[in-house]
Amino acid sequence: MLAYLQNLAVLICVNAILAMTLNFLMGYAGIFSLAHATFFGVGAYTVAFVAMHVSPSLFVCTFAAMALAAALSLALALPALRVRGEYFVAASLGLQMLAVTVFSEWRSVTGGLGGITNIPPVEFFGVPIESANGFFALALGFLVAVALVIALLVRSSTGRNLQAIRDSESAALALGKNVAAIKTLSVVVSAALAATAGVVYTFYLSFINVEGFTLDLSVLLMAMVIIGGTGSLVGPIVGAALLMLLPAGLSFIPGLPQAEVGLIQQIVYGLVMVLLMIYRPGGIAGQRKRRVATTETAQ
Which ranges does the record mark as transmembrane (predicted)? Predict the structure, then answer.
């Protein structure tokens, strides 16, 4: 049971990192992306390749994953963000579909549908991490680091510029802000930080394949952000934990066929999102944030 809980905790951390980095785009910049699983996958495949052919050092693999994901996101953002947001959604969807094809067919690098196996253990200052406790500490460390980076960014002038663009792009342009450059920077930062989740995921499983980086994951991450609360630092973590614990809880219901868990899970996801949009449109954490702000204003 302890091993199961540790496994669940690591996966919650991985998904929380992805949800937080997506929220940096959705909640603070008003940019909706359907390609977040792509940057996660690029980070994961980069880590696997570097660990097997260059070095399993945590620092080397993390730097390589972040750099490649940032470069790919730049190639997407530069043309797509010069137009209105809906075009970026379409472009990101196209990138996601293309990435799945590449992950599936570039067998010499990605292993194709069979994936990559026998990835060596990650080394932290030369010491390999192989225990469950070690991986949980690694996942939690990455989660805290990413949360701190995002918190610093959203409280800086960059964060204020992003929120100004989200609220009114025309007003930001009128104030002399370089909207395209700021939005491009936010996409690059989000993708680079998302790649760190790929570092934890790859070394933890010692195996990756394309099934972990599909459009379904991008949609699930968006659901985590919306349910947890956009524009909130805590919201994506709450959403990730809730949507990861839900299927785990369903599997323990007596008499429920395991083959039907996936279907019931999708129904519950949809029902939760509908109810939140009606009663808590800001999400679980977002609604609370607005109430606190309203109370402070009244006082």
Answer: 7-25, 31-51, 58-81, 135-154, 185-207, 219-243, 263-281
